[in-house]
Amino acid sequence: MPAWTPYVSSELLPQYGLAVMRSNRWPGAVAFAKDRKFENIYVGWGHKFDADNYTPPPPPAAMEEYPVVSEVTEVDDPTVEEERALKKAQEEAMEAAEDMDDVDDDEDDDD
Fold it and tell me: Which helix H or strand E contains 98, and what residues bound it?
Protein backbone atom coordinates (compact mmCIF):
# COMPACT_ATOMS: atom_id res chain seq x y z
CA MET A 1 0.00 0.00 0.00
CA PRO A 2 1.44 3.43 -0.87
CA ALA A 3 2.03 5.82 2.03
CA TRP A 4 0.11 8.71 0.41
CA THR A 5 -2.80 9.08 -2.00
CA PRO A 6 -2.72 12.22 -4.21
CA TYR A 7 -5.73 13.98 -5.68
CA VAL A 8 -6.91 17.42 -6.81
CA SER A 9 -9.47 19.20 -4.64
CA SER A 10 -11.50 20.45 -7.62
CA GLU A 11 -11.85 18.52 -10.86
CA LEU A 12 -14.42 21.05 -12.09
CA LEU A 13 -12.04 24.06 -11.95
CA PRO A 14 -8.50 22.61 -11.79
CA GLN A 15 -6.84 26.04 -12.11
CA TYR A 16 -8.30 26.95 -8.67
CA GLY A 17 -7.92 23.51 -7.11
CA LEU A 18 -5.39 22.44 -4.50
CA ALA A 19 -3.01 19.52 -4.70
CA VAL A 20 -3.94 17.27 -1.80
CA MET A 21 -2.06 14.30 -0.36
CA ARG A 22 -3.90 12.03 2.11
CA SER A 23 -1.93 9.66 4.33
CA ASN A 24 -2.81 5.97 4.12
CA ARG A 25 -0.79 5.06 7.21
CA TRP A 26 -2.11 7.78 9.54
CA PRO A 27 -5.83 8.35 8.80
CA GLY A 28 -6.59 12.01 9.32
CA ALA A 29 -3.19 13.32 8.11
CA VAL A 30 -3.52 15.58 5.06
CA ALA A 31 -1.07 17.83 3.20
CA PHE A 32 -2.26 20.37 0.65
CA ALA A 33 -0.52 22.92 -1.60
CA LYS A 34 -1.31 25.76 -3.99
CA ASP A 35 1.51 27.32 -6.01
CA ARG A 36 4.38 27.76 -3.50
CA LYS A 37 2.24 27.65 -0.37
CA PHE A 38 1.54 24.44 1.52
CA GLU A 39 0.16 23.25 4.83
CA ASN A 40 -0.15 20.03 6.81
CA ILE A 41 -2.98 19.09 9.14
CA TYR A 42 -3.80 16.09 11.28
CA VAL A 43 -7.25 15.46 12.70
CA GLY A 44 -7.41 11.92 13.96
CA TRP A 45 -7.19 9.56 16.92
CA GLY A 46 -3.43 9.02 17.00
CA HIS A 47 -3.63 5.42 15.73
CA LYS A 48 -1.91 4.06 12.67
CA PHE A 49 -3.97 2.32 10.03
CA ASP A 50 -4.69 -1.28 10.95
CA ALA A 51 -6.21 -3.76 8.53
CA ASP A 52 -8.05 -5.46 11.41
CA ASN A 53 -9.83 -2.19 12.29
CA TYR A 54 -10.19 -2.31 16.07
CA THR A 55 -13.73 -1.65 17.24
CA PRO A 56 -14.14 -0.72 20.90
CA PRO A 57 -16.84 -2.54 22.88
CA PRO A 58 -20.22 -0.80 23.00
CA PRO A 59 -21.00 1.29 26.09
CA PRO A 60 -23.29 -0.17 28.75
CA ALA A 61 -27.02 0.37 28.42
CA ALA A 62 -28.30 3.68 29.74
CA MET A 63 -29.88 3.56 33.18
CA GLU A 64 -33.41 4.79 33.75
CA GLU A 65 -33.42 8.25 35.24
CA TYR A 66 -36.52 7.99 37.40
CA PRO A 67 -38.96 5.19 38.19
CA VAL A 68 -42.40 5.75 36.70
CA VAL A 69 -44.54 6.57 39.73
CA SER A 70 -47.31 9.08 40.35
CA GLU A 71 -44.98 11.50 42.22
CA VAL A 72 -42.90 12.20 39.09
CA THR A 73 -45.56 11.76 36.38
CA GLU A 74 -46.75 14.93 34.71
CA VAL A 75 -50.45 15.79 34.93
CA ASP A 76 -52.59 18.55 33.46
CA ASP A 77 -52.91 21.77 35.46
CA PRO A 78 -56.21 22.20 37.32
CA THR A 79 -58.79 24.62 35.95
CA VAL A 80 -59.67 27.83 37.79
CA GLU A 81 -62.93 26.30 39.03
CA GLU A 82 -61.07 23.29 40.44
CA GLU A 83 -58.57 25.57 42.21
CA ARG A 84 -61.41 27.62 43.76
CA ALA A 85 -63.20 24.45 44.92
CA LEU A 86 -59.98 23.15 46.50
CA LYS A 87 -59.31 26.48 48.24
CA LYS A 88 -62.88 26.54 49.57
CA ALA A 89 -62.57 22.95 50.86
CA GLN A 90 -59.27 23.82 52.58
CA GLU A 91 -60.82 26.87 54.25
CA GLU A 92 -63.77 24.79 55.46
CA ALA A 93 -61.37 22.19 56.85
CA MET A 94 -59.39 24.92 58.67
CA GLU A 95 -62.63 26.33 60.15
CA ALA A 96 -63.70 22.87 61.29
CA ALA A 97 -60.28 22.31 62.90
CA GLU A 98 -60.52 25.67 64.70
CA ASP A 99 -64.01 24.77 65.96
CA MET A 100 -62.66 21.47 67.30
CA ASP A 101 -59.83 23.34 69.07
CA ASP A 102 -62.37 25.72 70.64
CA VAL A 103 -64.47 22.79 71.90
CA ASP A 104 -61.38 21.09 73.37
CA ASP A 105 -60.31 24.33 75.10
CA ASP A 106 -63.77 24.76 76.63
CA GLU A 107 -63.71 21.21 78.04
CA ASP A 108 -60.24 21.79 79.54
CA ASP A 109 -61.43 25.02 81.22
CA ASP A 110 -64.35 23.17 82.87
CA ASP A 111 -61.99 20.83 84.69
Answer: helix 80-110
